[in-house]
Design a protein that fits this description.
There is one protein chain. It contains 4 helices and no strands. By secondary structure, the protein is mostly helical. It has 2 domains: 31 residues, no CATH class; 73 residues. 5% of the residues are buried. Belongs to the FliE family.
Length: 111
């Protein structure tokens, strides 16, 4: 299908919008409509989440050491840091388990 703007030498947004509305294929194969769900984007988000989990675990460990050494007497901050670390670790483990389950299901498929 030819592009309408090349046929009429018009490069207005209205012509391109009309072509998009009348075209049967709005997203041809090989062209991502948006970058939200690409594998590299998901991988980068996963790596960021793992780094955040590691940071929470490190903060909790530091808060625990400071409290044990007597540098901090505020148990409330210690409890919050440990809760954040625990929740983040549980979430990370749950995601890992789901990924492994999906991988195992893919490996069991017969083609």
């Amino acid at each position: 299908m030819a592009d309408i703007s090349t046929l009429t030498n018009v490069s207005s947004g209205a012509v391109k919008a009309a072509e998009k509305r009348t075209s049967r294929v709005s997203n041809p194969v090989g062209k991502a409509e948006d970058d939200r769900n690409t594998f590299s984007r998901i991988l980068a988000t996963t790596i960021d989440n793992i780094n955040t989990t590691n940071a929470y675990l490190s903060d909790a460990e530091n808060a625990e050491i400071e409290w044990a050494l007597g540098k901090s007497k505020n148990t409330h901050d210690l409890t919050i840091a440990m809760s954040k670390a625990s929740t983040a670790l549980q979430y990370t483990v749950a995601v890992r388990d789901r990924v492994l389950t999906a991988y195992n299901q893919l490996m069991q498929m017969q083609f």
